[in-house]
Amino acid sequence: MNARLLLVLPFTALLLAGCGKSSTSLGEGGSVVTGSAGPAGANNASKELVKCSAPVATLALVENPNGYSYSSSYQLPSSPVPLVRLLAQQSGCFRVVDRAAGLKATVREQELKDAGILRQQGNTVSKGKGYEAQYSLTPSLTFSEQDAGRQIGGILQAIPYLNKLVGAAEHVKLKQAQAALLLTDNETTEQIAAATGSVEVADMGISGAMLGKLGGAAGAGWSNSNEGKVIAAAFMDAHNQLVAQVRELQAKELPPAVATRGKT
User: What is the DSSP string of 31-92?
Assistant: First the structure.
């Protein structure tokens, strides 16, 4: 069989599959980061998520000071930190402490109490009860989009019966994302572990459906676009690589766990 034909047949099948189809499926079409985390454990988490048998430390997520390399035209969230926080808590490797909006809300409540606005006998907000972050995790991200449609279209043009798909091939793109996670011991400042993750998928603009195994429910705002799904998958891959290193760490002395029903 002609080598060019062998090269283009998989893309041709994808083009044909994407034409003229429209359906709605509840709970489908999201990113690989799915479900929830909390007192009930990792609920509806991705089967691809690698977990720990017990947490090794408290963890704070830190924004990358250099920002994240993707275009604002993708309409993605400004930071992947909430996404990584969900992964870290679902994996059970860490007890996650909030150093973002949740912490600001706590400080605000303390200010209201100090100003005499809140009741003084309440114990919801009290100085000296916050948990320290024993480790910090910093994410890094690079996203790229390569136009593969013109190359595919050129091959299709030279093959009889397939040259009618040239226009459709122009919609095909390869989307790539590479993510990194850096784990630091806050007591010693030593970088304890580092991991990278990457993913590449074909995106077809015909039906707006990203191809590849990226199913699941909403991923903290990263399931609204094909670009977001690719990035979520890259962070999932980086997280799984990191867990292999975290499992070797000796657990630090952890603060008391949050009280749950039947457990105080």
Answer: -S--SB-STT-SBS--TT----SS--EEEEE---TT--BS-GGG---S-SHHHHHHHHHHHT
Question: For residues 195-233, b (16+ Cβ closer than 10 Å) or e, as one string?
Answer: bebbbebbbbebbebbebebebbebbbbbbbbbbbbbbb
Taking CA atoms, 66 is separated from 118, 139, 142, 228, 247, in Å, by 39, 10, 11, 19, 29
C-alpha angle 175/181/187, rounded to 5°?
A: 170
H or E element at residue 231: helix 226-246
* Contact yes or no for 113/84 (Cβ under 8 A): no
Q: What is the mean pLDDT of each run of 10 residues along the chain (264 residues)?
A: 49 50 42 80 84 96 86 74 93 94 91 88 81 96 66 48 46 77 97 92 51 37 71 92 96 91 66
CB-based contacts of 53: which residues, under 8 Å, 6+ apart?
A: 92
Which amino acid makes up residue 162?
L
Residue 144 pairs in a beta bridge with 176
The pTM of the full predicted model, rounded to 2 decimals, is: 0.72
